[in-house]
Amino acid sequence: METKSHNNPQGRPTPSSNGRVSMKDNYLLIEAVKKGYMEQVQQLLEGGADVNFQEEEGGWAPLHNAVQTYREGLVELLLHHGADPCLRKRNGATPFIVAGIMGNVKLLQLFLSKGADVNECDSNGFTAFMEAAGTGHVEALRFLYENGATVNLRRKAKEDQERLRKGGATALMDAAANGHVEVLKILLDEMGADVNVRDNMGRNALFHALRNSDNSNVEVITRLLLDHEADVNVRGEEGKTPLILAVEKKHLGLVSMLLEQERIEINDTDREGKTALLFAVQLKLKKIAQLLCNKGASTDCGDLVMIARRNYDSSLVDFLLRHGASEDFHPPADDWEPQSSRWGTALKHLHRMYRPMIGKLKIFIDEEYKIADTSEGGIYLGFYEEQEVAVKRFYEGSARGQREVSCLQSSRVRSSLVTFYGCESHSGCLYVCLALCEWTLEELLAHHREEAVENEEGEFARNVLLSIFKAVEELHHSCGYSHQDLRPQNILIDSKKAVCLADFDKSIKLSGEPQEIKRDLEALGLLVLYVVRKGDTPFEKLKTKSNEEVIQLSPDEDARDLICQLLDPGKNVKDHLSGLLGHPFFWSWESRYRTLRNIGNESDIKTRKAKSNILQLLELGKSEHSRSFVQWTSKIDSCVMRQMNKFYEKNGNFYQNTVGDLLKFIRNLGEHIDEEKNKEMKSKIGIPSQYFQKKFPDLVIYVYTKLQNTEYRKHFPNTQSK
Description:
11 strands; 36 helices; three-stranded antiparallel β-sheet; Transferase(Phosphotransferase), domain 1; single chain
């Protein structure tokens, strides 16, 4: 927590009682403070020297120097003459923090009384408590703790530093790194320090202790941390583990101590795929290599025999061979090529390196191989039975993990749901192995919009949404589950542009309660709008809008009708989605045109049988006269209209402005447009399906709405089987 700003005051006028104080006097003041010349300091201050003057290079003021040189009398003198007790150096350190570095309890108490915050930090996130821990000042540590210092506070680094994964360390890590055993004991036993807090690189106090090569107390500190159940499988720089660091330190005692731990991952690797055993052999550490092998380390981790031979260590060669090392170690082929283009580089790296197998799964939990974050364990690249996979991690016994697996196991082999290959359990984690896809729908629309560029027909939106609808329909009817978390991030696109539904950790088994399905239908309504608008409004923002607002945002009549039916499904919720798979939104323009022609071929329409059922059904109501096809004869090109009316010149039975006659017109034009005599008409019309869709964009949805529950639905295309 920061105190209020007390920034560098350079550039302000130097205060002076006589107006003649020079900059030299300000520097003389700082020098006098450093040397402890009380009288000279008194004289300079009375002569007008600036008590808050700060050196250019580090921003040190007289007060900072007085605290650093442990001169309590000078501190009180400077404060008496107006020194700012909260003034910050260039690195943001206050006199209070400097007092923490020096371990001066009296000054810490003084600055607290002057308004310092016990948890104030410098620009790098260091607090006085952290400084006292890192410098081994026990008395100051206890004083700060008793006055409210936060023991497990993590250093908050600057934004650019955090992007480099700097910061996040705690007082415990500082004490461990600097070898302060007594401080470590106090933090753990008296102050409740968390032994497994991680910094921004994922390192805990154990890792900090082991990476400090000059620490003479490293064995004592390691034992202390292990006794408090420090995680022995953490990773730090280059993906190294505590065991690998202990081998690199060539410290047999540390290696032995770590191998005593029940949960040690002896075969874990760094980012290059090197295990502790491989490091031991490379570093000619025979005793450590033998210890590792005797504790069960795999010898299938590199060309160990060749390395030992090259080091002229024949006894180690014999030992390794007795423990299963191969004379002819063959690493994975360098010419292997991944199927995935997006994840190809990381997959090649993972394929090339050695990793201990988890059943049939090869995986490395490292940022390089992370696909996405989740609420539990993240999603990583992996190989399951040598197949490229996305691996979703859960903690063992996770209700979410159990739901995910249960739902996927109920799906059929060829499915619109993401393919499920299998799962493995290891060290308290469940690994769910799924087909590896290239993008989420959100990513595709946000970053690869050019791949989703619409033709006039909206083919991309139609195909994507039809695949999603089929997947959800399969989930409801074939699997008996409701998804409960439909959103763009849970819809995946593979390398062949196929769409599948994923993320079932919130799914529920259907019990017959309509609301279970309604929630999925409502989410589908929002997804329709999200896709047809190409993701221009974030999905989470759409979720905050009312149904009326969502409907108003629909760009066309077909999408609007589909969304309305999803948001208000009526009573037959269970089968509602199956029916919507035949909605005109999913019809191609050619299918729409063919449907209109087929309906126009009905005899009652061709003969204009006024009292027929179909013409009465199609008749415009009083509130429907804003449709695009009202007065349709005046909207068709006049030369086309004249040509089409010629057929009725003898009986004078010309086309009228009714829906039935428009459908008959579309049917007749389709029958005759390719005749030689109609070449001029064809040049005007172009492609009929496009012509009528653009002229009358709401005609198909109108006809569909009027006829969907009648015998005439036989003319509608079957989009469900596509």
